[in-house]
Design a protein that fits this description.
This is Class I SAM-dependent methyltransferase. It is built from 5 helices and 7 strands; from the N terminus they run H-E-H-E-E-E-H-E-H-E-E-H. The chain is an alpha/beta fold and 192 residues long. Helix 3 links the parallel strand 4 and strand 5. The longest helix is centred in the first third of the chain and has 15 residues. The N and C termini lie far apart (41 Å).
Length: 192
Amino acid sequence: MTAVLSRYARRKKLDHFFAGIDKDARVLEVGCADGWVGQYAVAGGWQRFTGIDAVAPPAAPPHPFVLGDVRQWPRLGLEPGSYDVVVAFDVIEHGDLFDAMAALLRPGGRLMVTTPVPHLDWACRLLECLGLAERRTSPRTHLIYLRDLPEEFRPVETSVRGGLSQWGVFERVPHPSDADGPAFQWAAAQAP
C-alpha cells in the first residue's frame, strides 16, 4: 500500500508533467516500479509509452516494457534519439543515468524528473520511517541538485515542491553532430 504523502505526490506529478506531453509523443519511463505512471499514461491516451526498469514489474504493464538497466540501452534494442520525452520520477538519485537518457532523447526532447532535495534527504528518510512516504527501493547514491544536471540538458522549468522534492523539465540540447554524433558514438563505445 502506498503511503498517504506518496499517493498525493504521485497525483500531483501526473497532473503537472503529463499536461505538457502531447498524446502522440514517444514517451520512455525510466524506473517503472509498480507501474503507476504507465497505467496513468495508457489510460489517459498516451499510446506510444514504453517503460524500462532493471526489476520486473509485479504485474504485466499495459504498455511495452523493457527489462534491463537503461545504461545498457544499446544491448536492449533501444535506438538513439528515439524518444520525445523521458520521464524519471524519483529515479536519478539512484544512479548516473544522464548519458543514457541524453542518448535516447531526440534533440529538443524533454526530460521530466523529480528527485529529493539533497540536503533534505534525511527528512525524506524520517517520513519513510513514520510510514507517511513510500520506502526507498535502493540506496540514494547520486543525490543531485537539478541546477547541476549535465550540460546536455537545458532547464525549461524547475521548482521545489513540499520543501523536499525537486521537479524539473529539461530540453535535450541539440548537438551539431547529432545525425551521427554523441548518441551513436556512445552506443558504439558500449557495444561488445
